[in-house]
Design goal:
Elements (H helix, E strand, L loop, with lengths): L1 H31 L11 E5 L2 E4 H19 L8 H25 L5 H9 L5 H6 L10
Antiparallel strand pairs: 1-2
Helix pairs in contact: 2-3
Length: 141
């Protein structure tokens, strides 16, 4: 019984010391870590094909996706829809920095005639059809 009482008294002190060390280590990690307030402001969110992507650039693309969402659905995206919009923004950055360079290397491009066909020709893009179809008649306007 005396052994249990001794452990109880000494372990309380050790638990307090452990919690104190843990709190101090978390605070020091925030102060001295990579994105610390004291040592620089590294706002890089990633790297695509050797190009560093800043937080501001990524946020600008996310805001464009949000504006596009608002135009399509007439409301702001919910918290459940924001991860999908962020994923789309990252994929657009991948397209811009990695895939577009490869398209340019091999010479793939969309001609003016193809663009016109997608806008008002025989092969109209489905999103354009949806946006410009009269709901009452079902006709493309």
């Amino acid at each position: 019984m005396a052994l249990i009482g001794t452990l109880r008294n000494k372990m309380g002190t050790w638990v307090v010391v452990f919690v104190f060390v843990a709190i101090v280590s978390f605070i020091l990690n925030d102060l001295l870590g990579n994105n610390s307030v004291l040592f620089g402001d590294d706002r890089e969110v990633g790297e695509i094909a050797g190009t560093s992507i800043s937080y501001d650039e990524f946020q600008r693309v996310v805001e464009q996706r949000e504006a596009n969402y608002f135009l399509n659905f007439g409301r702001q995206p919910t918290d459940r829809e924001m991860p999908r919009l962020r994923q789309e923004a990252w994929e657009l950055l991948i397209l811009q920095y990695a895939i577009k360079k490869e398209y340019d290397k091999v010479g793939i491009q969309v001609t003016t005639e193809e663009v016109e066909d997608m806008l008002y020709g025989k092969n109209i893009d489905p999103s354009i059809q949806q946006a410009f179809t009269d709901p009452a008649t079902g006709q493309l306007d």
